[in-house]
Structures are given as C-alpha cells and as structure tokens.
Specification:
The complex is a heterodimer of chains A (about 250) and B (about 80). Chain A is an alpha/beta fold. In chain A, about 40% of the residues lie in helices and about 20% in strands. Chain B has a single domain, classed as SH3 type barrels (Roll). In chain B, strand 1 and strand 2 form a beta hairpin. By secondary structure, chain B is mostly beta strands. The chains are: A alpha/beta (about 250), B mainly beta (about 80).
C-alpha cells in the first residue's frame, strides 16, 4: 500500500541505520524522547531500537492520553455510566483503565450499559437510535482527536440531537512537554515530535523547544523508516550544532 | 526500555497510538459532510470530512477516530 510499504523497506532501514552509526560520537550517550505513543508502539512492533547503536537511547514520552488520565476521571465515567437511562460510550482504549474502584469493563460486566465505539460519530449514531436514552461519549485524546469530538458535537446540534453529550477529558501536548523540559533532572538531547498532532496544529507550537531549551525536534511519521530517519535528522542537527524544528513527515504535515 | 502500561496490552489503541489510517474515498455526501471510505483491507466506514477540502471519489485521506485529518497527495504536502 502506498505511503506504508515503502516506509517498511528493510534494505532502506539498514542504510539509515548505517548512516546513524556515522553520526554518533563514540563515548557520547544520546537520549532521544519519542513524544507520541504511536511512535512507542512502532518502536516495539518493528524493533527499531535494535537497529540503533548502544549509545543512542530512546525514552518514552507522555504521548498516551489513556495512561495519563487521572483515576478520578475514570471514576466519574463509571458513575455516569451507572446512572439510569444512560448509554456510556468510549474508545476501547479506556475500557480496562483502572479507576479507584474498578474499570469501565468491570462496570459493564456488572450491568452498566457501556459500549465501545471507534469514533464519536458512532456514539452519535447510537444516540439517534435511542432517543429515549442519554448517550454520553467519553472524549479523550490529544489534539489529533479533539477535532473529531468537536465536529461530532456540531453535527449533533445541527441535526437537533438532544440526547447526546460528551464528558470532555481532552488534553494538549505542549504543557507536559514544557513541564518535562523544566525538570532539573532532564537529560535529553532531542525530541521525535508527534506526527498526527502536528497534522492538526502544525509545527509552530513546538518551536519553543529549540528556542527556549536548545533541543532539536523532528516531527516524524509512524513507520519504522520514518522513525529511523527522524533519529538521523536529530543526530545530524546535534553534529552540526543546530537546534530547530524539522519535519520528516512531509507527506502528511504541510 | 520500560514496559508498556498494562492497559496498553492490546495491540491497538485509537488515541494512545495517535492512530492514522490511510483510506480511499468511495463516495461523498456533500449535504451531510461525510464520505464513505475504504481502508487497505476493504473495510468501509463513514468519515467526517469537514477538516479537508472538497473531495472526489478516489481521494486518499488520513483518518483518525472517524475524522479525516489530512488529504494525502494534496498539493500542500510533499
């Protein structure tokens, strides 16, 4: 499939890995944070870290809105789901996340009407099919997902759907990055920037990282070659003494 | 590397993995602002297309959580 297969090419991957070897200084330890959970998944899935020299370390970033959600928000969702007449909808991601007294999956097993959806549009469809029930969508996710929630709310209003609401728990990525960069214990050399968040917000929100903290950022796609190439771009910036925001994911991020 | 959190044991998380699926437009419903799209495996679903420009069948979209967030091969991207 175009835009996928060519970014999983093993021969090209080995070539980029060889280039990375030429960019690292022996004796120097490099720490690069991949901001996005999607990158972490790809690194695990394709064994990207196995292709890196031992002195290039990948550090997992804050890019999972599920893992970082406060336990109390899960408790709030379960309480809403147990209200009479409510159909509670959420992405599958949330189902097993523990609250202080169990998960949404356990609440469902105990009788709450909790349904997994693949998009907020699915939740809106359930609301239209059940006009006598209140359908609540548990809206989570970063900047990539927030527009989907917003557009669905606009659609619900335009279509006069009165029994649909959202429990909004969206978060944005810049504040946790700034908090990380303010940490006195931080020892990072650069960031692999979030590709799909940048599709929505662009590269400009990340310019504070090189400007204020002198760290390179490379916005990257999610295939193994994307990640390898972005690491090479970060190392090249470090080698040349540059730090700026670069875009590796040009096929999607303008 | 540290282990992924237990909640991430499943292979696929829409939001956590910042999921983006390449899909092809099959038909456009301009009135409702939706497009019927097909992924690489042939699965079809309705996609919200308010964030991308005017579309025609055959257009390639990057879809996240039921919403097209970018048009692939659009002149604005390389």
């Amino acid at each position: 499939m175009r835009f996928v297969d060519e970014f999983r090419d093993a021969e090209l991957g080995r070539a980029v890995a060889a280039e990375i070897l030429t960019l690292v200084e022996p004796g120097r330890h490099y720490k690069v944070m991949e901001v996005c959970g999607g990158h972490t998944h790809s690194i695990y899935k394709y064994g990207v870290d196995d292709l890196l020299p031992s002195n290039v370390e990948l550090v997992h970033g804050p890019g999972c809105p599920v893992c970082v959600i406060p336990m109390g928000r899960v408790d709030d969702g379960i309480a809403l789901a147990r209200e009479p007449g409510v159909i509670f909808t959420c992405f599958g991601d949330m189902m097993r996340v523990p609250g202080s007294d169990g998960s949404l999956l356990e609440a469902k097993a105990e009788g709450a009407d909790i349904r997994m959806v693949y998009s907020p549009l699915d939740a809106l469809r359930i609301a239209k099919q059940n006009p006598d029930r209140e359908v609540v969508f548990f809206a989570i996710g970063f900047e990539t997902t927030a527009p989907s929630t917003a557009l669905t709310l606009k659609r619900a209003r335009a279509e006069g759907v009165r029994n649909f609401s959202c429990m909004c728990s969206h978060v944005t990525i810049v504040p946790p990055l700034r908090a990380l960069l303010e940490s006195p214990d931080l020892r990072l050399d650069g960031f692999i920037g979030p590709g799909h968040v940048s599709t929505v917000v662009g590269a400009r929100p990340f310019e504070f990282i090189p400007a204020d903290y002198a760290k390179p950022v490379v916005i990257a796609g999610f295939e193994p070659l994307d990640i390898l190439q972005s690491i090479a771009m970060i190392l090249r910036q470090l080698e040349h003494g540059r730090c700026e925001v670069e875009n590796q994911y040009t096929r999607v991020v303008p | 590397m540290s282990e992924l959190a237990p909640a991430c044991a499943a292979d696929h998380c829409i939001t956590c993995a910042d999921d983006g699926v390449a899909m092809t437009v099959v038909a456009v419903d301009d009135v409702r602002g939706l497009a019927l799209c097909e992924d690489g495996g042939g699965a079809r679903s309705s996609v919200e297309v308010a964030l991308v420009g005017p579309l025609a069948p055959g257009a390639r979209l990057l879809v996240h959580a039921g919403t097209a967030i970018a048009e692939l091969e659009h002149p604005a991207v390389a």
